[in-house]
Amino acid sequence: MPSTVIRSFEYDGDSQILAVTFLSGRRYRYFGVPRKTYEAMRLSASKGGFFNRQVRDHFPFTEEQGGRVQRTKLPSAIAPAQGRLS
Length: 86
What we know:
The chain has about 90 residues and is α+β, with helices and mostly antiparallel strands. The protein has helices at about 35-45, 45-55, and strands at about 5-10, 15-20, 25-30, 60-65, 70-75.
Protein backbone atom coordinates (compact mmCIF):
# COMPACT_ATOMS: atom_id res chain seq x y z
CA MET A 1 0.00 0.00 0.00
CA PRO A 2 1.43 3.42 -0.91
CA SER A 3 2.27 5.80 1.91
CA THR A 4 0.38 9.05 2.30
CA VAL A 5 3.55 10.89 3.46
CA ILE A 6 6.59 8.95 2.18
CA ARG A 7 7.38 9.08 -1.53
CA SER A 8 10.27 6.60 -1.38
CA PHE A 9 12.96 5.15 0.83
CA GLU A 10 16.12 3.17 0.25
CA TYR A 11 18.67 1.50 2.45
CA ASP A 12 22.43 1.01 2.22
CA GLY A 13 23.26 -1.96 4.41
CA ASP A 14 27.03 -1.41 4.29
CA SER A 15 26.77 2.08 5.78
CA GLN A 16 23.44 1.52 7.62
CA ILE A 17 21.93 4.65 6.06
CA LEU A 18 18.20 4.89 5.48
CA ALA A 19 17.32 7.62 2.96
CA VAL A 20 13.71 8.80 3.07
CA THR A 21 12.04 11.15 0.59
CA PHE A 22 8.70 12.63 1.60
CA LEU A 23 5.88 13.69 -0.71
CA SER A 24 6.81 17.28 0.17
CA GLY A 25 10.14 16.69 -1.60
CA ARG A 26 12.19 16.81 1.60
CA ARG A 27 14.91 14.17 1.79
CA TYR A 28 16.51 12.89 4.97
CA ARG A 29 19.33 10.44 5.63
CA TYR A 30 19.20 8.50 8.92
CA PHE A 31 22.44 7.00 10.22
CA GLY A 32 23.07 3.78 12.13
CA VAL A 33 19.76 2.20 11.15
CA PRO A 34 19.91 -1.58 11.59
CA ARG A 35 18.89 -3.73 8.62
CA LYS A 36 16.09 -5.25 10.72
CA THR A 37 14.55 -1.79 11.17
CA TYR A 38 14.64 -1.19 7.42
CA GLU A 39 13.15 -4.64 6.72
CA ALA A 40 10.37 -4.05 9.24
CA MET A 41 9.60 -0.68 7.61
CA ARG A 42 9.59 -2.26 4.17
CA LEU A 43 7.08 -4.88 5.34
CA SER A 44 4.94 -2.48 7.37
CA ALA A 45 1.41 -1.76 6.17
CA SER A 46 1.83 1.86 7.29
CA LYS A 47 5.25 3.19 6.26
CA GLY A 48 4.58 6.64 7.73
CA GLY A 49 3.33 5.22 11.02
CA PHE A 50 6.31 2.88 11.31
CA PHE A 51 8.67 5.73 10.47
CA ASN A 52 7.14 7.96 13.16
CA ARG A 53 7.33 5.25 15.84
CA GLN A 54 10.64 3.57 15.01
CA VAL A 55 12.89 5.93 13.01
CA ARG A 56 12.08 9.60 13.60
CA ASP A 57 13.74 10.86 16.79
CA HIS A 58 15.64 7.57 17.18
CA PHE A 59 18.58 8.04 14.81
CA PRO A 60 20.89 10.92 13.90
CA PHE A 61 19.96 12.45 10.56
CA THR A 62 20.71 15.05 7.97
CA GLU A 63 18.16 16.92 5.90
CA GLU A 64 19.21 17.48 2.30
CA GLN A 65 17.99 19.95 -0.30
CA GLY A 66 19.47 20.21 -3.76
CA GLY A 67 22.20 17.73 -2.83
CA ARG A 68 23.37 19.92 0.08
CA VAL A 69 23.03 19.23 3.78
CA GLN A 70 20.63 21.75 5.30
CA ARG A 71 20.74 20.56 8.90
CA THR A 72 21.95 17.75 11.09
CA LYS A 73 20.30 16.54 14.26
CA LEU A 74 20.97 14.00 16.96
CA PRO A 75 18.02 12.42 18.76
CA SER A 76 17.63 13.80 22.28
CA ALA A 77 18.48 10.40 23.74
CA ILE A 78 22.02 10.58 22.31
CA ALA A 79 22.60 14.32 21.98
CA PRO A 80 25.22 15.80 24.32
CA ALA A 81 23.87 17.76 27.26
CA GLN A 82 23.50 21.48 26.50
CA GLY A 83 25.95 23.76 28.31
CA ARG A 84 27.90 20.91 29.81
CA LEU A 85 31.69 21.21 29.79
CA SER A 86 33.82 18.10 29.36
